[in-house]
């Protein structure tokens, strides 16, 4: 794509797209270009429709096709500044599943199988505050407001700041954790003065999963991963 790729990247950065969105959009446009073997500015409505239909027959997930649709729409509308002509092509609906409602006993059971104190507190923070994994790992001590009983989440989904509730139980556990680890820059530090690696928390989930024998308990792993977008 050359100059067109640079232009697309520049436009996305100016619009303050997340790094993940930028990677996904570039991936789909490059895949589209490879499929036809032509510069995308020489392709139009007919080629886009056929390509999306091709993805459907390739058993691409509905969310994957929706991502491709959005990436191509951004490329043609914002980069090539062409009118988007695919409004009549139905955008695939992504599947929506209701989360499993867990009992307090189920929550406690999974946490009881996490031995490392830091990992356990991170999982408690995620569950109690309704945070995503990345949001929890990027917390700093100053984000815990014990007076207002709030947790400040900076640059969460959509790069928006927000507040979430801080429970008394979590606050007590965080105070125990703070006395033991004495974090400075990051609430949950890892190596080289960076937040702890997300894969560490993923392994903590996997280890707890192996220890659980009840099928009912296994539902917690599925729920927590889906809710917190741990991949």
Provide structural commentary:
The chain is mainly alpha-helical and 231 residues long. The chain folds into 2 domains: 77 residues, DNA polymerase, domain 1; 125 residues, Intergrase catalytic core (hpI Integrase, Chain A, Orthogonal Bundle), CATH 1.10.443. The protein has 10 helices and 3 strands. The chain has a 3-stranded antiparallel β-sheet, with no helix packed on it. Helix 2 crosses helix 4 and helix 5 packs across helix 10. It is elongated and about 60 Å long.
Q: What keyword list fits this structure?
A:
231 residues; 3-stranded antiparallel beta sheet; hpI Integrase, Chain A; 2 domains
Summarize this, please?
The chain has 231 residues and is mainly alpha-helical.
Order of strands across the biggest sheet?
1-2-3
Helix-strand sequence: HHHHHHHEEEHHH
Put simply, the count of helices is 10
Distance between the termini: 30 Å
């Amino acid at each position: 794509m050359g100059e067109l790729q640079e232009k697309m990247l520049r436009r996305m950065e100016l619009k303050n797209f997340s790094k993940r969105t930028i990677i996904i959009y570039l991936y789909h446009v490059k895949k589209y270009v490879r499929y036809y073997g032509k510069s995308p500015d020489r392709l139009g409505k007919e080629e886009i429709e056929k390509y999306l239909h091709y993805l459907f027959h390739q058993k691409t997930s509905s969310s994957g096709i929706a991502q491709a649709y959005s990436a191509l729409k951004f490329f043609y509308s914002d980069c090539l500044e062409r009118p988007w002509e695919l409004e009549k092509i139905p955008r695939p609906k992504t599947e929506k599943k209701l989360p499993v409602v867990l009992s307090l006993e189920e929550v406690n059971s999974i946490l009881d199988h996490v031995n490392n104190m830091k990992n356990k507190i991170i999982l408690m923070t995620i569950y109690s505050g309704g945070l995503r994994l990345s949001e929890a790992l990027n917390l700093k001590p100053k984000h815990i407001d014990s007076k207002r009983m709030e947790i400040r989440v900076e640059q969460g989904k959509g790069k928006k700041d927000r507040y979430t509730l801080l429970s008394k139980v979590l606050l007590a556990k965080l105070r125990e954790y703070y006395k033991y680890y004495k974090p400075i820059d990051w609430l949950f530090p890892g190596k080289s003065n960076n937040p702890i690696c997300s894969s560490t928390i993923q392994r903590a989930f996997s280890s707890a999963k192996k220890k659980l024998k009840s099928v009912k308990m296994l539902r917690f792993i599925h729920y927590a991963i889906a809710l917190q977008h741990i991949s």
